[in-house]
Amino acid sequence: METVTNNREQLIPLLQQVQRREGYVSHEAATRIADQLKIAESEVFGVASFYAQFKFYPPGKNAVRVCLGTACHVRGGQVLLSALERDLGIGPGQTTKDRQFDLDRVACLGCCALAPVVTVNDEILGQVNPNKLSAAIRRAGKSKAPARGDERESDPAEDGKE
Amino acid sequence: MNSAELAEFRQSFSGKKAQASKRWDDLNTGSTPVVYVGAGSCGRAAGAMDVIASVEKTTERIKVKARVLQVGCIGPCYLEPLMDIRKPGLPRLSYANVTAKKAAEIVEALLGRGEMLKPVGHFGEQAFDGIERFFDLPMMKPQVRVVLRNCGIIDPEDMDHYLARDGYEGFLKAVAMQPDQLIQEVEASGIRGRGGAGFPTGRKWRTCYEQKAEQKYMICNADEGDPGAFMNRSLLEGDPHAVLEGMMIAAHAIGASRGYIYCRSEYPLAIKRLNQAIADARSLGLFRCFPNFEFEVKIKEGAGAFVCGEETALIASIEGKRGSPRPRPPYPAVEGLYGKPTVINNVETLGTLPNILRNGASWYAGHGAEKSKGTKTFSLVGKVKRTGLIEVPLGTTLRKVIFDIGGGPINDAKPFKAVQTGGPSGGCLPEAYLDKPIDYENLAAAGSIMGSGGLIVMDQETCVVDIAAYFLDFTQKESCGKCTPCRVGTRVMVDILERIKKGDADEDDLDKLERLGETMSKGSLCALGKSAPNPVKTTIRYFRDEYLEHIRDRRCRSGVCKEFITFTINAQCTGCAVCLRACPSNAITGLKKEQHVIDTAKCIKCGVCRSVCQFDAVEVKSP
Ligand SMILES: Cc1cc2nc3c(=O)[nH]c(=O)nc-3n(C[C@H](O)[C@H](O)[C@H](O)COP(=O)(O)O)c2cc1C
Ligand code: SF4
Ligand code: SF4
Ligand code: FES
Ligand code: FES
Questions:
Q1: Residue B583 Cβ contacting ligand 3 at under 6 Å
Q2: Band of the pLDDT at A147, cuts 50, 70, 90?
Q3: Which of A125, B465, B605, B620 is spaced 20 to 30 A from B262 at the CA atom?
Q4: Do B233 and A110 touch (CB under 8 A)?
């Protein structure tokens, strides 16, 4: 009995391993997990589809995530999303044609005091404005994102207003 | 384990502690300078890792030996990155908003030339050179740090620091008590669960303790799903052993030999530090140090579902199932993980326990209000000057928190409008409630809840209808869909709110919202659905006139709801063209150095121009 329950307990950790390693849960990976745990494949997908962490399509090269948690919403997260939509030419949940960028929204990264917050891959950017964000995007990929605003490397907010 | 082995453990623990204390004293008073950088996820987001690299490069260049420590976050996040330096002969000095360049200057001045650039505060006891004590800064002074006592002070990855500051003393006291006596102590402290509902912790434990079962479980709820709250993350990153120690105390009380920490996967640093803490505690022998105590603990990562913070959904998720709640009773304390008696406590509840054990129940009950004992952490964010993580005695007023600690609204020209407590399950409280003491009962009476401690401050530029729509959109997406009142109710509410925001609603819709709210509160299976209407109910209750303005006058006084606003550029425009280049819809035209113009037909009202303009030249207007 113990081993059976423990087996099942491995399902989400195994899915997480695959998600982390491959960036998504492929059909083959799901079959593999089902075999390993001796459960039906539909069970694997049934659980995986419940959780937002699991994706079922291969991701783009760079992941851009805009926080729309409450603190970020109140401090203009939506504005950043608009700016990104135009920079990347895609909406949230989509991948650019050249597969360079994924755009996603998240609900809170726990850095609310620095709102609004955006992550580019593993880097968390706090107190972002559209200009700072553009620079980060350009750094991340040799992206086609056009230079935004002033060409100076420094953030205009730093030598301008608050 | 027999009594000889027990005596041996006690002795080896004392030895270890003595060693730890020596290392700790050496750090604090030794001849090597120490640089402390607040490098929690928040500090890193603000640039802490660049600061560390710069400090290391600088000390190497000027050939000075110094130790660089990564500490957790100490609270005033708006000052991040924060860097402290202790140089022998001086108190620990604190520098705020440090960049890589500034860090190099500070280090070179102090450790190279012996010249002190002006810090924001110092950690000494006495007055020092006209510099304020760090803990006397306006944001810090009204606080009482119990659960946060080590955050920002110790290196969370160095167990010796925790031991030197009396770590695991609470546990050693607890484990020497009979479970019944231990539960009495926790009951006497008056502590209530910090995860949201405020259920008395001692009473929950007693129910579980009284169950007869060969296996029981102790679970730490570190799912922290409330968007805009990060108290638990900061505690886990800044003092992971405190939470683990709390779990071990609880495990002894209820008789659990197995523990789980369910932590959201968005917190990788917290997970890493918990793993380290568990490994260190294990190798010190703490998990099997007494004849009547044996413990093992595992970390489970959440997979991005808010509802999994609810205790029965959390259990389902650990078991590898879809995270849907189930009806209670039976409560987990009776029938929990794998059907066995299980206690689930929040991170902060657990982190507080070692302090209660060390200092005694009556000491703890001496803090706080009549029915809400002790201290509580809050994440103070939104439109407030001094954002951060704070800890105050319950019973403190909202005004003290928002104005004295937080410094009031971010922009003096845009006064305070409301504060949201309790996240998506909570309510939006107006000015009139600012002088109410924060406790479980007052917040409930106001239509909100204490929740886990998110405090989101809103000013005149926050639209309450938009906020209500925001929260309902959140709960609608996060509803697990198992029960109809929640699944359908949240969707209908979002529809109505969106119509109000667009000007397609009438006054009956407000009644509809209120009626629907009642149905959801009564009929939903779990607290997600039951409390989802709270943001709507409270905004209608306190800001009805704003709803009516949207409906009758097609006006959004806060300048948020797109249907009712226009963007224009005023004469403050210098013609810098920053907005022109930033506009996603090419709606802005203008010659260099001349006032720019927005083509309202092309404008999609995204607000990007306003956020990038350095001269406050972009205005938003509603009729
Ligand atoms: C939708 C929903 C989400 C919740 N999220 C959390 C959470 O993130 N952390 C938490 O400790 N409790 C959360 N809770 C409350 C838990 O169900 C439970 O009451 C709590 O963990 C008990 O711990 P405490 O007694 O120490 O407060 C949530 C409840 C609901 C209904
Ligand atoms: S109230 Fe909502 S989240 Fe809770 S069980 Fe029902 S549908 Fe699921
Ligand atoms: S609000 Fe957006 S679309 Fe309108 S002018 Fe400004 S940047 Fe352009
Ligand atoms: S709300 Fe954006 S980081 Fe928390
Ligand atoms: S200093 Fe890190 S949460 Fe604030």
A1: yes
A2: very low
A3: A125
A4: yes
